[in-house]
């Protein structure tokens, strides 16, 4: 029964080797999908290229269906998985700041690493910027502490927060994703083509 | 625009649904093996912590934030996310190498200068780094991996990132279109 490493099915010594292998696949998939190009990534915000939306939501839908299906079949215990915690205002304010950084810099951290790997100088500067941002946060930590540590609701899922059936939610989420793909293709036909 | 074969192959990327499907399978596999999701900004935090620790150990110990990630006998770089990030660099290098996309360049719209691109890249990076600490994760760790287990925090972070990027895209349009 999964997860395999926490349950001792695979010895913990393999943890870091598995990390590198998973990272290699992660980097390969992102780069091959075009995520090493800031101009391709930024397209999602201007309607000339929706690769980010398509890759991101396809991945989320596949992963969430897979997690719940494997739990249903008994291969994976969903209660043992790490759920990203909810610090309400940290998530909102942090997300808003990240959004501005995304559209200004054209990368998010994972995609910038892919671009660094193929020699994009703008991505190297971007990663340097991220480290400066982390440094600023760390130095001003007491200032951010109220939103960083406050408004904590635990490691909650939508099932806990909204009381909805997760299976129905996954179904509706998949429908929303497909609708978003259809709409994005219609939008892209109307937007002026950008060559990059 | 050059139309020779090499120039063309540089821009041939995977079908986004194919890439997304494989990425989804990878996230599922990661949860199945390790019980956690993927991440990207975590390794950069470890790097900052270890730089500060080697430049000024006392400052790192006194800081309430750095000290969270420093243990007595282990380096902050000995961390799952750091190894995963090394893998990301290797994997992206292999993919870029196979498609002939490797080379030193600054990619920007022809309407702006390289200098302007780099200034905005630096500023964007600073904001993203700051935001990722406040939200305890970036698009990979918080939004994507969070959504895979229906984490409320993951969904809120995702909505905040994309909402604010769409809301402010108008002000940065000169850089991209």
What does this structure look like?
The complex is a heterodimer of chains A (196) and B (177). Chain A has 196 residues and is an all-alpha fold. Chain A is built from 9 helices and no strands. The longest helix of chain A is centred in the last third of the chain and has 25 residues, at 166-190. The radius of gyration of chain A is 19 Å and the shape is globular. Helices cover 66% and strands 0% of the residues of chain B. The model of chain B has no long low-confidence stretch (mean pLDDT 92). The radius of gyration of chain B is 19 Å and the shape is globular. The longest helix of chain B has 21 residues, at 114-134. At the A-B interface, helix 1, helix 2, helix 3, helix 4 and helix 5 of A face helix 2, helix 3, helix 5, helix 6 and helix 7 of B.
Give keywords.
heterodimer, A: 196 residues, mainly alpha, B: 177 residues, 66% helix, globular
Distance between the termini of chain B: 17 Å
Largest contact between chains: A-B, 134 and 121 residues
What characteristic shape of chain B results from the CA principal axes? globular
Q: Low-confidence stretches of chain B at least 5 residues in length (pLDDT < 50)? A: none
Share of helix among residues of chain B?
55-70%
Oligomer: heterodimer
Low-confidence stretches of chain A: none
Global mean pLDDT of chain A: 95
* Strand elements of chain A, count: 0
Shape of chain A: globular
Biggest sheet of chain A: strands, sense, closure?
A: none
SSE class of chain A? mainly alpha
Query: Roughly what fraction of the amino acids of chain B lie in strands?
Result: under 5%
Topology order of chain A in helix (H) and strand (E) letters: HHHHHHHHH
Total number of beta strands of chain B: 0
């Amino acid at each position: 029964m999964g997860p395999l490493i926490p349950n001792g099915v695979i010895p913990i010594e393999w943890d870091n080797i598995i990390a590198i292998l998973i990272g290699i696949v992660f980097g390969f998939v992102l780069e091959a999908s075009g995520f090493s190009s800031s101009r391709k990534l930024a397209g999602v915000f201007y309607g000339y290229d929706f690769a980010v939306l398509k890759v991101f939501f396809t991945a989320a839908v596949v992963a969430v269906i897979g997690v719940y299906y494997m739990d249903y079949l008994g291969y994976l215990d969903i209660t043992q998985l790490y759920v990203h915690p909810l610090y309400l205002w940290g998530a909102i304010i942090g997300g808003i700041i990240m959004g501005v950084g995304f559209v200004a810099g054209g990368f998010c951290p994972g995609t910038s690493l892919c671009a660094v790997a193929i020699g994009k100088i703008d991505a190297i500067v971007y990663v340097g910027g991220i480290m400066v941002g982390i440094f600023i946060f760390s130095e001003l930590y007491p200032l951010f502490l109220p939103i960083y540590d406050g408004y904590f609701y635990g490691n909650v899922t939508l099932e806990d927060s909204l009381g909805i059936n997760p299976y129905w939610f996954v179904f509706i989420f998949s429908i929303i994703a497909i609708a978003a793909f259809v709409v994005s293709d219609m939008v892209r036909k109307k937007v002026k083509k950008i060559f990059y | 625009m050059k139309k020779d074969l090499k120039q063309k192959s540089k821009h041939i990327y995977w079908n986004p649904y194919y890439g997304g499907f494989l990425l989804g399978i990878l996230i599922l596999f990661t949860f199945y093996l390790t019980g956690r999701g993927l991440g990207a900004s975590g390794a950069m935090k470890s790097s900052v912590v270890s730089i500060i620790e080697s430049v000024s150990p006392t400052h790192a110990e006194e800081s309430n934030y750095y000290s969270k990630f420093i243990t007595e006998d282990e380096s902050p770089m000995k961390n799952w996310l750091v190894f995963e990030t090394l893998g990301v660099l290797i994997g992206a290098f292999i993919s870029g190498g196979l498609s002939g996309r490797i080379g030193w360049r600054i990619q920007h719209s022809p309407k702006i200068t390289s200098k302007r691109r780099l200034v905005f890249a630096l500023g964007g990076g600073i904001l993203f780094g700051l935001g990722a600490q406040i939200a305890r994760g970036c698009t990979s760790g918080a939004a994507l991996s969070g959504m895979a287990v229906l984490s409320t925090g993951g969904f809120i972070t995702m909505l905040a990132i994309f909402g604010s990027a769409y809301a402010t895209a108008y002000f940065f349009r000169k850089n991209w279109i």
